[in-house]
Design a protein that fits this description.
Number of domains: 3
Number of strands: 14
Radius of gyration: 21 Å
CATH architecture of the largest domain: 3-Layer(aba) Sandwich
Order of helices and strands: EEEHEEHEHHHEHEHEEHEHEEEH
Strand content: 25-35%
Bound molecules: adenosine-5'-diphosphate
Distance between the termini: 34 Å
Helix content: 25-40%
CATH class of the largest domain: Alpha Beta
Number of helices: 10
Largest sheet: 6 strands, mixed
Strand order of the largest sheet: 6-7-8-3-9-10
Length: about 290
């Protein structure tokens, strides 16, 4: 079962074109949707999740017409929105139990087993009696995954799940997501290149509502091989290099900027070839290089 998006467009009433003829085919497994803030990721996620309408285009999940057969989609969907909203004083266990009931798990024994299984899977069993209001960012996101997994979804959408997590929490979250299963379509939207590098076999880069790349991360990286060069420079010279070269990233290494530039030919003195990484791809595509 694939998710096929064709020519999907959406302009908000204020004139912002959030999606501009987006076409993507998303297979089983982890799919990364990478784009800067404002690219249109949440609009796309919410449209796939049947929470908002598009102006034109189509989305097909297997045999289901997503934009029309909303109830059918919702039976197969798990969704972790960008902002999960209020975190009430009730415990993780009770909240999950309540959400499972809303999803139609009316048999008490069955629901109890489901909730306990989910709490174990996301490693929150030991804190199940604590109020969600007191959870850390990482614990909240793991709770968010638990609620999204109620009912064994075939399509799991997670919108910017690692924003605000510290590195340890992010790792735990990566491990959890990668365990979710190979027989599910997982769409992970993020502006963090590392999320896609670590987790996804397929990806798209989206910017200003348009798809700029669609394929495998290593294929994206290969397309830049031989065109990325690096050198360490003095901090004061950054502006000058930005004017003379196509600088696509700058990182501080031991206090000095290491710049990556895009150039089909050797860019001159002091530059050495660099291995392109996904970060280079991301910035190069967005800069339209
Ligand atoms: P992302 O998730 O990649 O940050 P969004 O889909 O949230 O991007 O937003 C895409 C663009 O649409 C942005 O310019 C944003 O300001 C605009 N936008 C999003 N939601 C609305 C809305 N409800 N009304 C008007 N503009 C919106």
């Amino acid at each position: 079962m694939d998710l096929t998006i064709q020519e999907l467009s959406k302009t908000y009433p204020n004139g912002v074109k959030a999606l501009d003829r987006v076409s993507l085919t998303i297979p089983l497994g982890m799919f990364g949707l990478l784009g800067p803030n404002g690219a249109g990721k949440s609009t796309l996620m919410r449209t796939i999740a049947t929470l908002q309408a598009a102006d034109s285009g189509s989305i097909q999940l297997g045999d289901i017409d997503v934009l029309r057969e909303k109830e059918e989609v919702r039976k197969l969907l798990g969704y972790l929105p960008q902002d999960f909203g209020v975190y009430p004083r009730i415990s993780a266990h009770d909240m999950l139990d309540h959400l499972a009931l809303l999803k139609g798990f009316t048999h008490t024994g069955e629901r109890k087993a489901l909730v306990e299984d989910l709490l174990h899977r996301v490693n929150l069993y030991s804190v199940r009696k604590k109020a969600l209001a007191g959870f850390s960012g990482g614990m909240r996101q793991r709770f968010g995954i638990a609620q999204a997994l109620i009912g064994n979804p075939r399509l799991l959408i997670v919108d910017e799940p690692t924003a605000g997590l510290d590195p340890g929490e992010r790792n735990r979250f990566y491990n959890l997501l990668s365990e979710v299963g190979e027989n599910v379509i997982v769409i992970l939207s993020t502006h963090i290149v590392q999320d896609v590098m670590e987790l996804c076999t397929r990806m798209a880069i989206i910017h200003e509502g348009r798809v700029l790349f669609d394929g495998a991360p290593d294929q994206a990286v290969a397309s830049l091989e031989g065109k990325i060069w690096q050198r360490t420079i003095a901090k004061a010279d950054i502006k000058q290099y930005e004017q003379s070269h196509r600088v696509i990233s700058s990182k501080l290494i031991a206090g000095r900027p290491l710049i990556h530039v895009f150039s089909p030919d050797h860019p001159g003195d002091g530059f050495e070839p660099a291995h392109a990484d996904l970060e280079d791809v991301f910035f190069a595509r967005i800069a339209n290089l």
